[in-house]
């Protein structure tokens, strides 16, 4: 299934917030991304209809199957590319913003080649601690 960049960002945000807080609600996503609650509601409906997330009666959002796979892929790419760009001397703020753009368009082959060249993975403690 081809997924839009905006959907990838929502899924990654859900993963980040779940790891940080232990739970995720629509309002948490709206606050984190500085989006309106209405915009987030529309996006969540689409993600739910595509079977990427579930939302329980209390409003807690859970990543499902392919949604979790996509979120983890985006998260790894974002973290790793941020660190790789900083290793090249790019300012942390710029590196993080650029990594967010690059993570959606880079091919799996190119990403793996960059990982091999840089020689670290996002599982490395110093990389994890940055996020």
| Highest-level CATH class of the largest domain | Mainly Alpha
Q: List unreliable stretches of 5+ residues.
A: none
Return the string of H and E elements: HHHEEHHHH
Find the count of extended strands (DSSP E, 2+ residues).
2
Taken as a percent bin, the fraction of beta residues is under 5%
Strand order of the largest sheet: 1-2
Q: Figure out the total of helices.
A: 7
Largest sheet: 2 strands, antiparallel
The second-level CATH architecture of the largest domain is Orthogonal Bundle
CATH homology superfamily of the largest domain: Winged helix-like DNA-binding domain superfamily/Winged helix DNA-binding domain
Structural class: mainly alpha
**On the 0-100 scale, what is the average pLDDT?**
87
Radius of gyration, taken over Cα atoms and rounded to an integer in Å: 15 Å
Whole-number tally of structural domains: 2
Terminal Cα separation, in Å? 28 Å
Q: Percent range for helical residues?
A: 55-70%
Shape label? globular
Molecular structure report:
- Helix content is 66%, strand content 5%.
- The chain is mainly α and 131 residues long.
- It folds into 2 domains: 5-69, Arc Repressor Mutant, subunit A (Orthogonal Bundle), CATH 1.10.10.10; 73-128, Orthogonal Bundle (Diphtheria Toxin Repressor, domain 2).
- It has a two-stranded antiparallel ribbon with strand order 1-2.
- Helix 1 crosses helix 4 (65-87) and helix 4 packs across helix 5.
- The chain is globular, with a radius of gyration of 15 Å.
- The model has no long low-confidence stretch (mean pLDDT 87).
Tell me the layout of helices and strands.
Blueprint (H helix, E strand, L loop, with lengths): L4 H17 L4 H8 L3 H13 L3 E3 L5 E3 L1 H23 L4 H11 L5 H11 L6 H4 L3
Antiparallel strand pairs: 1-2
